[in-house]
Write a structure and sequence with these properties.
6 helices, alpha+beta, about 55% helix
């Protein structure tokens, strides 16, 4: 199976709801603020472990934080 797609997220929305800075989220996760910036900008896809840690931090299911969109979805829109 060789499908391409991309990963998007709602990290900035969830962070804003809690009124947390990128620095605070980074500190709570043990990552750099730049990593948070890159994830929010969809320029960096976190490891599966980090994705689950982010979801847990916000008390959300991983699918409520991260969404995978296949290339086929974009071609059909």
């Amino acid at each position: 199976m060789n499908r391409k797609g991309n990963l998007t997220n709602r990290l900035n929305v969830l962070r804003a709801e809690k009124r947390w800075s990128q620095k605070k989220v980074a500190s709570l996760l043990g990552i750099s603020r730049q990593t948070v910036v890159s994830i929010e900008a969809n320029k960096y896809s976190p490891s599966l472990m980090l994705a689950f840690q982010i979801a847990h931090l916000f008390d959300k299911d991983i699918n409520d934080v991260f969404q995978y969109h296949s290339e086929e979805e974009y071609l059909n829109d």
